Amino acid sequence: MPAPLTHRSVDVGDITMHIAEQGDGDPVVLCHGFPGLWYSWRHQLAALSEAGYRVIAPDMRGYGGTDSPADPSQYDRKHTVADMVGLLDALGLDDAVFAGHDFGAQLVWDLPAWAPGRVRALMQLSVPRTPRSPVRPTDGFRYMASKHFVHLHYFQEYGVADRELGDRPREFLTKIFHALSGANRYLDCWDFPSEGNGYLDVLPDPPALPWSWLSESEFDYYADEFTRTGFTGGLNWYRADDYVWEQTEDLHDLPVTVPTTFIAGGNDPVLEMMGENPFDTMKAMVPGLRSTLVVPGAGHFVQMEAADQVNDAMIGFLRDLD
């Protein structure tokens, strides 16, 4: 009989964090991105726990049932790493395998350097490791926004995107899930100018639910949570980019030597934005890289769009660690 899925809140330091847990065994911590929740890992919680692992999926700082500080500086690398170390301490764990997606992947890439000894291995989704940017992130966003609409710049001003997305959460979520999926070309958003456009103006209209990878009831969970909380907590991760860039100056490009696997959708626009072959750069930066999986036809939300393939890859990687 499958292990039950349980929920609780834990004190991880300066915030209280909601976590979902399932199974027993070696711990695996799953870190979501934007616009995600613990629920983004629902397929992995079930599969990995059944394979013999203790799976822990938090609502990250700013999301769902976890505290959401108003100050964007509290989403910097010092705070987000402290959340993960505090989570391990609160659960009495010396270390764990960490998996990350989107902003969660960016955080997890930094964990081996920021929290040495607490990271057994990495399972990274959608966002490959890249060198530290030579320019301040917001300067780069501002330049791109002078050419075309770019959400990274639009999200920087506190309150603007918060109101737009928060007033129409269901519309935004259906649009962004579809736009970043393997069924669409997200970079068509770049055909629009920045001036006079919000995010909802440039995102394509999605087909009606259900989709092959997202049912109406699954979507309703996201819509209900973000209707309740708004999007400010998630947007603050974007607004902390400059803080993270400054704090990681001496650590970002250190080689990642812990065992690592990387998984992405073949139609993920993140890979398209990173040039012809982002894997060569990642291999040089991640000597611990043991395997990669690119799932044809899947997009940015690969753990939901191609759950079976992702689960098989994760379980195979974890068993090789044993």
UniProtKB/TrEMBL annotation:
InterPro entries: AB_hydrolase_1, AB_hydrolase_fold, Epox_hydrolase-like. The keyword Hydrolase applies. Residues 27-306 form the AB hydrolase-1 domain. GO terms for molecular function: hydrolase activity. Keywords: Hydrolase. The keyword Cell membrane does not apply. This is Alpha/beta hydrolase. It comes from Gordonia neofelifaecis NRRL B-59395. The lineage of its organism: Bacteria, Bacillati, Actinomycetota, Actinomycetes, Mycobacteriales.
